[in-house]
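Dear U.,

For the methods section draft, I wanted the exact inputs and outputs in one place so we can describe them consistently. I've listed the two proteins in the order they'll appear in the manuscript figures. Please don't edit the C-alpha cell lines directly; just add comments below if something needs changing.

First protein:
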Amino acid sequence: AAREAEPAEVSESELLERAMSAWRAGEVDAAAGWLERHRRAFPAPAYAAEAEALHTLVRCARNADPAAGARFLRAHPRHPFGALVRSACAP
C-alpha cells in the first residue's frame, strides 16, 4: 500500500485518527504501526484511553488477546469507544 506523506510533526489526535482510519479499512498492521508511532511520540498521552481502545481493537482483529475487550470495558465502562470495542471483540 502507498504511504501518505507525513509532516515532520503529527499531533497526538492525528496519529490516533490515522490508526482508527486504518483499522476501519481493515488495515490492522497499518493501524498497529500508527499506534506504535503514537506510543513512541507520546509516552504520557493525553488520549491514553483512546489509544488503549485502539490497541484493544487491533488485538481483537488479530485474535491475539481474547480477553482484551473485556479488560478495556472493565477499565473504561463508560468510554465512548465501549460499544465499538464490545462489538469488535465479541466472541
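Second protein (the one for the lower panel):
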Amino acid sequence: MATGAKTARIWFLVLLCPLAAAANIGLSSLVREGLHAPLFLDTLFTTALTFSAGLLPGIATALLTMIITVSHDGLPEINLFVLCSIAEAVLVWIFRRRFEKLWKPSPAEPVLYSFIAAV
C-alpha cells in the first residue's frame, strides 16, 4: 500500500471512530428514551467498525463511546462496561479473521459481503 493511501486510510479511521461512537450513543438514546424500549444498542457501530476496519478502530470506538457516555451521564459504574465493549471488539475481530479464512468473496458477491460488513 502506498504511503499516501495509508495516510488517507488512517485519517479516514480517525474521523470514523468518533462518528461511530456518536452513532452508538445516538441510537441507544433514541431507542431507550424515544421509543421507551429497554434495549441498549451502544455497541452496534463498534461491532460494525471492528468487522470492517479492524481491531484498533473497534477498541478506539468502544473507548470513545464509554468516555462520552460517562461524561454525559455521570455514571461512574459504566466504566467497567468498557471491558465488555473491548471484549466484544476482540471477539468480532477473531470471528472476522476466521471468517475470511473460510470464505473468500468472489467479485460476483459484493452486495452480500458489504451487507455482512455493515452488520
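Candidate sentences for the figure legend, describing the second protein: Residues 3-34 form the longest helix (32 residues). The CA atoms of residues 105 and 113 lie 7 Å apart.

Thanks,
Y.
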